[in-house]
Amino acid sequence: MEISNHNPNDNSHREPNLNFMQSTTAKIIMVGVLTLILLIPLQYVKSLIEERSENQKKTEETITRQWGDNVYIYGPVLKVPYQTSSSTEYAYLFPEKLATDADVQSESRRQSMYEASIFNAKVKFTGTFVNPDMSKSAVSPESLQWDRATLLLNTNGLKSIREAVTVTFNGTKYTMEPVAGENAADSLLSLETRPINLSGSHSGQMSFSLDVAYSGSKRLGIAPIGKVTEAKMTSNWHSPKFGGYLQPDKQAVTDNGFSASWKISQLNRPFAQQHFGRLPELRPYSFYVDFLIPVDEYQQNMRASKYGFLVIGLTFLIFFLIQSISKISIHIFQYTMIGLALVMFYTLLISITEHSSFRTAYLIAGISVVAMITLYSISILKNRKFPMFIGAALSGLYAFIYVIIQLENYALLAGSIGLFLILGAVMYFSRKIDWSK
Question: CB–CB of 160/214 below 8 Å?
């Protein structure tokens, strides 16, 4: 009779499963899955930042409605009626020479927790008109009614003008009044003088000087309508953005403000000095300055949150390498607590930012989370050497991300170099791990 040696209590057939669950591969899979799961609360944080950012935009709109919107302006334009066979039309003549000098005093204005840039601008236009050359037009010089000429100043809104607007033309001062429905081009409104009798005086140079004071926000734009336009702008704002059809010829930006100058000739732009019937759309050919808040605080929070996956992944990787090298067991629950602490960094960051600055909030949130994880690591790893390393690594990682957030032109370069160095360090410290177990 054959006796079986099979032991019913023998669990050796289960060892492969047990060994796999305790293997390095199984552990890294679980940590990877946990990292992906933590993207859910991280996405919630991003949604929260977007919601608060939308509130910021609504507040900016409220401030700009109350104070004044973006300012776009051009002028003065000499408007001369002429008679056709069926109706009265108008000729619009641009200056021969135009000099623009804008002095802009800017500030950031807060409403509740939100911020917007506003400014007061004093713009001075000086220059000359000359008798137009009508040889290339279908309008005869004799049809122009110089005794009914007026001067126009076009702008995107009259609400922003803070003082009465007067123009000195050929030595005489004229008041400019709003005109309803004057040329729909550019969706602009116009200020216009009463009729000026230029009969007999339009053959020579006609000089002008015009001052206008604006209160506005975010942007000041001017169209270069002179045959030769020389423009200058100075301001106390330290973070301008120059844009539009042409960049300034000279610019200087310091912590105390900026100055910029443009010199634009008729050859630099695709519109003529004379227009008949209606004015063209000139906004695409204007130059402007944006008075930017360089990186608003919600934008900085959003940029920080985009590095959340990197922070969680690298932190878990550090703990995993320590676990693999030191043979210290770290439970998946402990990984979860560490991951939630890392996510809490972003909720702390946005909440403190709303009552302070981004820099202060980043410092407080960073110190709090690094201290929490370091102290928790002492209880997990049962010594102080590895937790101190973790604290130093996390501090360096948060400092590295802060620097990237503050950089604008070199953010991609700095980030790429940093990640390359981090990858090299991971490859170095993981080289002795036995991945077969």
Answer: yes
